[in-house]
Amino acid sequence: MRKLVYYAAATIDGFIAGADGSDPTGTIFEIEGDHMPVMIAEYPETVPTHMRAPLGIDAPNKHFDTLLMGRASYQPGLDLGVTSPYAHLRQYVFSTTITESPDPDVEIVSGDPIEKVRELKREDGKDIWLCGGGKLAAAVQPEIDELRIKLNPVAIGTGIPLFDGELGPQRFRLAASRAFESGMIFLTYVRR
């Protein structure tokens, strides 16, 4: 059975985005530094489709073939006219407010996210990438098998937390860590 992996950037105080929910790339999280070539080489599928050619990325998907995101994570790209941000992956957007998909490559899921995750886990294939956001992560938390966190050396004080919702204590074991000169630490945790 494949795994659900929450792969996300976070601040040292536990936020994945600013308080307004805006895309933090380049404003909160450093997009330059010795960590970027490593992350792109190791996780090429996490680069949005429209950015792959300009960055010279033509590598196949290494870890994931399916992407899950909440409506708030999907909306910034949609506002820019990007209806299929990860066309090289199967894309599922969990929303009760978007009733019809703006793109045939994006499936809108309005039902129980746990049931959808369990259905996807039963399929053959690579792992499933939980891209964001915090509310979806809290909703599917019992099904998360691994956390792969790009911990950035910045604190913002308020914002969207890694898990945005009620949940009881969840135990994970540190499986790997890698520190970069940029100050970013890549952490891999597996469910205990």
TrEMBL record:
This is Bacterial bifunctional deaminase-reductase C-terminal domain-containing protein. InterPro entries: DHFR-like_dom_sf, RibDG_C, Riboflavin_Biosynth_HTPR. Signal peptide: none annotated. SUPFAM superfamilies: Dihydrofolate reductase-like. One of its GO terms (biological process) is riboflavin biosynthetic process. Residues 3-185 form the Bacterial bifunctional deaminase-reductase C-terminal domain. GO terms for molecular function: 5-amino-6-(5-phosphoribosylamino)uracil reductase activity. It comes from the Bacteria. Pfam families: RibD_C. PANTHER family: 2,5-DIAMINO-6-RIBOSYLAMINO-4(3H)-PYRIMIDINONE 5'-PHOSPHATE REDUCTASE, DIHYDROFOLATE REDUCTASE FAMILY PROTEIN (AFU_ORTHOLOGUE AFUA_8G06820).
